[in-house]
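Sharing a chain and its predicted structure for anyone who wants a worked example. Both blocks are below, sequence first, C-alpha cells second.
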Amino acid sequence: MTKRWGAVGLGVAAGVWLGVCARAQTPAGGDREAYAVIVHPANTERSLSLQEVREIFTLERRRWADGTPISVWLPPEDSDAFALLLDTVYRTDLRRLHRRWRERVFAGELEAPPPTLPTVEELLRVVAAQPGAVAIVPLDRLGPSVRALRVDGHAPGEPGYPLVRSRSEAHRRRDAESAARFLLRLLRFVRWPEAVAGRQTLPV
C-alpha cells in the first residue's frame, strides 16, 4: 500500500511540476504594470537613475541631495511591488535578501532592515507625512499627497521606464510558489506516509 501511494504521489507531483513549468514558459502578454517611486511633495529630487534607486533601497545611500535623511519603507513581502523590487532593484530572492540584511546588521552596517507596511494606503500615508520618506507603489494607486520620481529619465508609464512588471508574470510567480509548497508537502507524504497519518514521528 505504501509503495502504491508513493507511486501515485510521485505521479501527481510530476504532473503539477510539469504544469507549472509549462505556464512559466508561456510568453507574457502586453499587460504591463508600472510601479512608482514615491516621495514627499517637498522633496527636491525630481529624477533618479535605476542605480540610484538600488542604492537607496539597499540603504547604501542614506541622504537626499539636500541633506535630508532618507527613510525607506517597503511593501509587504507577498506583494507584486516587493516581487518587482526583488527582480529589478535587489536582484536576488527573498531568502538571500534576508540573509544579506542579517549580515549587514551583524557587521554593524545597519541598525535594522527597512520596515514594511501592510497596505498601499499606509505607504502613501507615511510618505506623505515624512519629508525624507520613499516607497514604491503601483502607478494606478498613486495619490495626490505624494510625488512620483522619474527613473532613468522616464516618468512612470512612459516607454523606457524600468520599473514595470507583467501582471501575468506576477501571477506565474505566485502559482510557482504555491506549487512548490504543495510539492514539498506531497513529497514529504510520499516518503513518510505513516508519519503524515500520525502513526510515527518524522525524522528531524
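Comments welcome. The radius of gyration is 21 Å.
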